[in-house]
Amino acid sequence: MSPFSVLSIWAIYFASPILPGFTLVVWGLILKKFPPKSINTFYAYKTLRSMENSNNWQEASRFSSQFMIRYGIYLIFAGVALIIASPSLTTMVLANLIGLFASTILISIKTEARLKQLSENNSNK
Q1: Residue 89's domain spans which residues?
Q2: In whole angstroms, what is the distance from residue 66 CA to residue 59 CA?
Q3: CA separation (Å) from 124 to 49, 54, 120?
Q4: Alpha-carbon 43 to chain mean position
C-alpha cells in the first residue's frame, strides 16, 4: 500500500465526520452574508411558500441561514465526538447521513412554520 493511500484513508476518516457540518455552516454564512435580492434559480431556500412573494423569499433565506449555521455547528461537534469515539468508517458515514438528513428536515420544518406564521399575520392585518 502506498503512503498516499494510507494518507487518503486517514483524511477520509477524519474529514468525513466534520464535512457535513462544515458545509452547512458555510452555506448558511453565504446566505446570511449575501442574501439573494430577488427570487432566483441559483441559490436560496426554495419552496413553493418561499417563492410566493419577495417578503417570503427574503425571510426564508434569512431564517433558514440561522438554522443552517446552528445545525452545522452541532454536526461539527457530533463529528468530533465520532472521531473521538472511533467507530468504524461505516458507522461514521451512516451517523453523518442521518445527522445531515435530520438537520435538513428540521430546517425545512422550522422555516416553513415561520413562513406560515408570517402569512397568517399578514392576512390578519
Answers
A1: 16-35+49-124
A2: 11
A3: 18, 19, 6
A4: 13
Question: What cell numbers appear for 22 in the block?
Answer: 462544515
CA distances from residue 111 to 47, 50, 102, 119 in whole angstroms, order as listed: 10, 9, 14, 12
Angle at the Cα of 79 from the Cα atoms of 76 and 80, rounded to 5 degrees: 90
- Reported as a single tens digit per residue, the pLDDT across 63-78 is 999 999 999 999 999 9
The cell for 89 is 468508517
Annotate 40-90 with DSSP letters as a single string: -SSSS---TTTTSSHHHHHHHHHHHHHHHHHHHHHHHHHHHHHHHH---HH
| Cell numbers linked to 121 | 399575520
What's the total number of domains in the chain? Answer: 1
pTM, entire model: 0.83
Residue 1 lies in a domain: no
- Residue 42: inside a domain: no
- Tens-digit pLDDT profile for residues 23-59: 999 999 999 999 888 887 677 888 889 988 889 999 9
